Amino acid sequence: MRGITHAGVGATAYIAASGLMQRDFSIFELVFVVGASLLPDIDHPKSKASKYVLPVKSKEGKRAFFVCLGIAVLLFDYLYVGENALKALGALLIMIGFTSHRNGITHSLVGMMLFMFVVHYTGTKYEYKYLTQLFAIGYGSHLFTDSFTKAGLPLFYPITKKKFKGIITYRVGSKVGDFIEMVILLLCVVYIIYTLPTI
Ligand SMILES: [Zn+2]
């Protein structure tokens, strides 16, 4: 699924969840959830998420960047902090460096839980108790919508590389796929326009 569609679905999921939880709308939270909804595609060197993060947009550049960053985080943790969340983050970054698009850790439940562990640590540290839930809404919406694509998801990676997908699927980038994503995006925009003033 394309980045813009993930962002639309993530924003819609946030607005819907805010309504259900009877919480006030917050632009910070919206941006955070949309960011989380784009995060899994960080494993693709040319995705929307990578666009703002990677200095070099090639496979090798992506690998070198994430592996170096992961080692730096682990070293920083070893020397100064000694916190499990940072160890998890370092390990995650190195794993992201070694996975190709949609084949590894960022599109799995293990990856989602590791990220949530890091986010939970940050939320607790800065006393923002909803951070983990907000992250789960964005990240979860990405995995959910990707499960309708033909390629499927390695949901239980690294235990198994087997890909899982929904009953109805479409091919990303095909004419039908583009049309479906356009309709989804349109529905998201309509939902947001109608719901936003009510929360
Ligand atoms: Zn994806």
TrEMBL record:
Coiled coil: none annotated. InterPro entries: YdjM (IPR016956), YdjM-like (IPR007404). It comes from Oceanirhabdus seepicola. Pfam families: YdjM. The chain crosses the membrane at residues 63-81, 105-123, 179-196. Keywords: Hydrolase, Membrane, Transmembrane, Transmembrane helix. PANTHER family: INNER MEMBRANE PROTEIN YBCI-RELATED. The lineage of its organism: Bacteria, Bacillati, Bacillota, Clostridia, Eubacteriales. This is Metal-dependent hydrolase. Signal peptide: none annotated. GO terms for molecular function: hydrolase activity.
